[in-house]
Amino acid sequence: DNAPVIAVDGPGGSGKGTVTQMLAKKLGWHLLDSGALYRLTALAAIRQNVSLDNETELVRVAASLDVAFEPTPEGEPAKVILAGEDVTAEIRTETCGDNASRIAVMQSVRDALLQRQRDFQQEPGLVADGRDMGTVVFPNASVKIFLTASAEERAHRRYSQLKAAGVDVSIDAVLEEIRVRDERDINRSAAPLKPADDAQVIDSTGLSIKEVLSRCLAAVGQA
Ligand code: C5P
After folding, report:
1. Is residue 117 within 6 Å of ligand 1 at its C-beta?
2. Strand 85-86 relative to strand 126-130: parallel, antiparallel, unpaired?
3. Where does the signal sequence lie (predicted)?
4. CA distance 172 to 15
5. Closest C-alpha to 131, from 40, 13, 12
6. Which residue, among 9, 35, 20, has the nearest Cα to 132 in the 3D structure?
7. Distance separating alpha carbons of residues 141 and 178, to the nearest angstrom
8. Is the CB of 101 under 6 A from ligand 1?
9. Closest ligand 1 atom number to CA of residue 91
């Protein structure tokens, strides 16, 4: 398909999730939350008693994922349905994110999810959120944005979200979790987290979501 793609990559907590949702809504384009596919693969593996070290079985789980993204009327994030079960909240947990990043280091698991991601490229266009959207999945994307922020700022945002949700955590624990996840995503050999050569890098440290959105729109040429 030749539908245009806006690839938005970056570490967790950079504001990518919120900004890609807003971009997709504003443009009336499709949205791919590729991280959800890695989270769903990890969750489905656990549900099927597959060890997160069993690469052969993980590939089977990834290739046979029974998943649906159901749009909600108010333009809130889509509901995520795994084999008929609503797992929208469950895939957002720290444990699930950590498990996702463990299986995401395996090239064979990434390969098993590749075509499923490319299938989201449909008219009138796609906003793709991930780590390797501009480098691997959609190398021909018309616009590539690499959204980043300092680890401290990202930890702070995540901490506030967790507090608001009533989760009892310390800022230090959240920062440590972010550092571990960054380390794994940046240093893996399979599709490591890095800006594409032709990406526009936006540092969201100290910016509001509104400011980040307007910088992204400027990058897209819609400001
Ligand atoms: O973005 P999110 O936190 O949902 O992603 C969870 C994990 O999935 C990331 O830490 C990363 O290891 C992996 N991931 C990836 N490639 C993507 C999206 C996510 O490796 N395109």
Report:
1. no
2. unpaired
3. none
4. 20
5. 12
6. 9
7. 28
8. yes
9. 4
Closest to 7 measured CA to CA, from 209, 200, 145, 136: 145
**Of the residues 38, 127, 174, which should be mutated to test ligand 1's pocket, given the most ligand atoms within 8 Å of the CB?**
38
Tokens 């979501």: give the residue.
209
Q: ipTM value of the model? A: 0.99
The whole-chain average pLDDT of the chain stands at: 94
Inform me whether the pLDDT recorded for 114 exceeds 90.
yes
Burial 154-173 (b: 16+ CB within 10 A, else e): bbbbbbeebeeeeeeeeeee
Work out which ligand 1 atom sits closest to the CA atom of 184: 12
Asked whether 34 lines ligand 1 (CB < 6 A), one says yes
Q: With contact defined as beta carbons under 8 Å apart, do 107 and 117 qualify?
A: no
133 close to 37: Cβ distance less than 8 angstroms: no
Q: pTM of the predicted model, to two decimals?
A: 0.94
Residue nearest to atom 11 of ligand 1 (CA): 101
Asked whether residue 93 is marked as a ligand-binding residue, the answer is: no
- Evaluate: CB of 134 within 6 angstroms of ligand 1: no
Residue in this structure with the two tokens 């990434």, named with its chain if needed: 110
